[in-house]
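Thread: Newbie trying to understand structure tokens

Hi all, I'm a second-year student working on a class project, and my supervisor (Dr. K.) asked me to get a predicted structure for one chain before our next meeting. I've only ever worked with sequences, so writing a 3D structure as a token string is new to me. If someone could post the tokens and maybe explain what I'm looking at, I'd be very grateful. Here's the chain:
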Amino acid sequence: MLLGLLATSCQITETIHLNQDGTGRIETESLRDEHSYMQLAGENYSKEEKFEDTTYVFKDFITKYSETFSKLPASEKAIFQKYATVNVHIKKSSYEKEFRTKINQNFDKISAVPDLYKTQEYADDLEHNYALTAEEHYYSVSYAFDGSLFKRIVKITDEVELKKQQDKISELKTRVANFKINQSYVLKYYFPRKIKSVSNANAKISEDKKALELQFLLSDCLQNPESTNLEVILE
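---
Reply by user tm_fold:
Sure, no problem. This is what the structure looks like when written as tokens:
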């Protein structure tokens, strides 16, 4: 799926609104860049016929596939439960030329937020009674906030898979080198107090110093996920 995002030329935005008491909201949005995709798809672009407009809360999947869920070991049940309040909206319309997936969650503390990038795979696991396919992701994303220090923590979980994906991405980069392709990965974070310092010098801090925006190339993030680690110290 991750490579698929790259191959279809996607823009991903991760937005976090953090309150002083540690509560907040997180959203990831994947949007297919139509101009870029048109170049890659060529004549197949106009032949595309797809329509899907789906909205669900993850706990609906747990309820609907309760038979599958009930047979899982406690450790796997605990993973799925972390996603219970995650909302998903998928829209794929070749008529309106809009391909967008929004995944969001309100949280009481950001350390309890699961890796939202695995949400759809976990939903598929429940629906089709698969093993945990999302664990095939070769890195994990988590967060921490103690009131003054915010952390985005990316860890490599599978070195062998990382190497495989790096090779595939290098090959893909070569294939699309002659196209003008937009494949951005943007972090937009809003804080309750002014930002004192940010670990990544490329971060653009807002005028009121309470927000930042940080942009990467999606291919760079997939080749080196740990490059998106971030620490923000608030005043």
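A couple of things are worth pointing out once you decode it. The first helix runs from residue 2 to 7. The mean pLDDT is 87. Feel free to ask follow-ups in this thread.
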